[in-house]
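Sample entry (214 residues):
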Amino acid sequence: MKNIMQTIALLEMSITCAALIVWAIQRNFEAQIPVAARMILALLFANLFYWPLGMFMQLPLAAYIRGITGDLSVVTLLLLWSSVLLDRVDPRNTEAHFVPIGFKVSIVVIAFGFYPFALGVGMFDPYGWGYASIGFLMVVSIFAAILAIANWTKGALIIALAILAWSIHWHESANLWDYLLDPFLMIWALFACISAIRRKRRERLQSGFLFRAG
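Predicted structure, serialized as tokens:
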């Protein structure tokens, strides 16, 4: 069972690294790569990360990267894979990877409320909720329902799949938090929120300049 989990973890990290490379190619060359081509590129790059490359590397590249980053949450994996490999995107427009700003803000607020206490600040420990807490599971389910009501069905599906992965112990962790949140997701959401604020401010300044009297 442990070997199966390790294999799954390496596959996930290999696909994640491949997806990041495909994303970088699209951004650097400002090219709209068809979905089929992206999938083929991801498959080729994933193989490079999954298999040892030579006698000087006893483990695959993905294993070394996983040793640094740890396992990513299912939410992070599915957001990245779907946005880069499946969605129709314009590489010159970062907003083409449509994730509602409300979701990003929620991730930032939850993370800033979660990590300090989980790391030992105070006597309150929200991390313990992730161990088969019915109340916490209901809250997460309600959050997914809100995403669906807000017409972001992709987000609701991602949360549902994260809960399903936790219920079948897809990863080594038995804590639901580890399937929903990780530091990389928090950092991405934080920078996305900052970028959105700057973009709105720039648009407001440009609008004010265009319509300035005289």
